[in-house]
Fold this sequence. Notes:
The structure holds 2 protein chains of 2 kinds. By secondary structure, chain A is of the alpha+beta class. Chain A has helices at 2-29, 44-47, 104-112, and strands at residues 31-35, 38-40, 51-55, 62-68, 84-91, 98-101, 115-119, 124-128, 138-146, 152-160. Chain A has one domain: Immunoglobulin-like. Chain A is built from 3 helices and 10 strands. In chain A, the strands form 3 sheets. In chain A, strands 2-10-9-4-5 form a 5-stranded mixed beta sheet. Chain A is elongated. The model of chain A is unreliable at 19-28 (pLDDT under 50). By secondary structure, chain B is of the alpha/beta class. In chain B, β1 (29-36), α2 and β2 form a beta-alpha-beta unit. In chain B, α2 crosses α15 (311-333). The N and C termini of chain B lie far apart (79 Å). The A-B interface holds A 62, 64-66, 76-78, 82, 84-89, 102-103, 105-106, 109-110, 115-116, 118-119, 121-127, 145, 147-148 and B 38-44, 77-88, 90-91, 111, 114-115, 118, 207-210, 232-233, 235-236, 264, 267.
Amino acid sequence: MNLFSAKWMVIVLMVLFSISFSSGTLSAQAKLTIKPDKTVLSQQLLKEPIKFFGSGWGAGETVVIELLIPKGIEMRGLGKEEDRVGIAVGTCNEKGDFETTMGTLATLNWFFQVAWIFDDKTTSMKSSFEKANPLPPGEYEILATGAITDKECRVYFEILPHTKGQ
Amino acid sequence: MRALKMIGLSIVFLVFVSISISSFGAEREVAYLSLGDYTGPSANTGIPADSGCEDGFKYINDKGGIQGVKVKFIPVDTRYEVARAVSAYKQLRKTPKLLVVGCPGTAVGKGIAPLANADKLVQLAVADGEFVANVSRTFIWGQCYQDVFGSMLDWMVKDWRQKGKAGSPTVGYISWDNAYGREALRGGKEYAEKIGVKLLPPKLFPPGTADHSQYLAFLKDADYIFAGTPDPTPAAVIRDAYRLGMTKNIQFFCDTFGPTMSGGVKAYNKELQGTIVVSWFLRGLEARNHPLAKELWTKYRKRPMSEMSPLYQIGIVWALNYAAALEIALKEVGYDKITPDDMYKAYQKLTGRNISQGMQGLCAYSPTSRRGSEEVKFYQVKGEELVPISGWTKCPDTVSLHKF
């Protein structure tokens, strides 16, 4: 009887170990790196945008990268109940790797939170930094999720305060 | 024993009554998700179109829905940004009975297409020929950019011959330097070659350009010029052409999203006289006088008709097409079993019907076609109005001439 229980105990432990090992491997496989991972909000970001590098995702998978909005911060265009906003999308190669940038429009809309106004001179819509509401300095959680595999990876990104002369 | 039997019967009766009440009280609902733009760079087109869609669904719901099923309109402000649209789609894709996702933006439409396809959802997208060439679950609103351009080329050749001129006309093309600005050339260029029109090298300028003179200078030898981009940019291009004296001898054309009476036509009225606008939905006073558009605008927006953008009609047609497809799907599988795939099959059965009530040509969705309609109307700027100068005219198929 004791021998029987011990045998089952070993099997259960082995199963548990393999599950935890494999899930650990899975979560470790899906990676996201942000470069730079901290920055001051300046118009230089429009020339040198934030880059995202991913690995360990599904082949050909679309990966959506979202900024999780801390409580108390309002985002232009989002409902009060919304807690995240997409800031970039990556499309994986056959190996499950991707490289993407935060587009100009995403940077203007979500980091600077510009207003869009009609410009009579150019007869087109123009971004207004005067009416912008930039994200305050602080640490922000970034969540990457695979559209097919549902794999997730969380990293942090920091917006630094402006110093004199910036 | 008898008491126990009575208690048992009472319980059965109560369960039956409660199930009946809950079924009776529950509203039967399906959903439409719009990944629109209400505060971003295309809000001036996104707001009127989605207002039309929202009002179209209100109108349908106020009439009791389709076979008692109401439509829930879910608006999302993407600010014209793909990542936000993909993120919002991911959050909302499991909405109960979500059957269609609308993408009023070219880039957003392309970003959502693979996800919507994977979810078997019908997607409504702008007017890219790519969606016509590669038949999938993405349906375009009306006619595609290149086929509209093809119909202009046909008109130019006919006009050239009617004037007794020899040979073929020379045509200029000016638009934004982006995918949208080049889209009409993907098939349109091949069609020009096919019918023997000499197409000058296209002149593409960055969005936000204040003065278009330097680009127009390359097109001074043209007999006809197509000025692309949405209102009011093409009006500003023609304003600059007027200053250069080019509008005296060159006939200018704009397409579906070109000058409106309350926009470009009003802003540069003198300069735009004689400009031809080719559209797959009603424009000018024809749009403002359309009975259904008028009824919905005055009922739900409570504003004067002069403030109604013609784009309001596009949104109404999205709602009408949805309702027509829903009616087919409900008849075939019923509310409880309806899936996005049933809606997809139903959209393909709308072929040849006048669902838009004349706001655009006959519906062309079919198992092999993703065009909302195949026809356009020609309008001309006369005074302060856009006056129709043709009936609905079928466009040539230019998409099949291009390798996508």
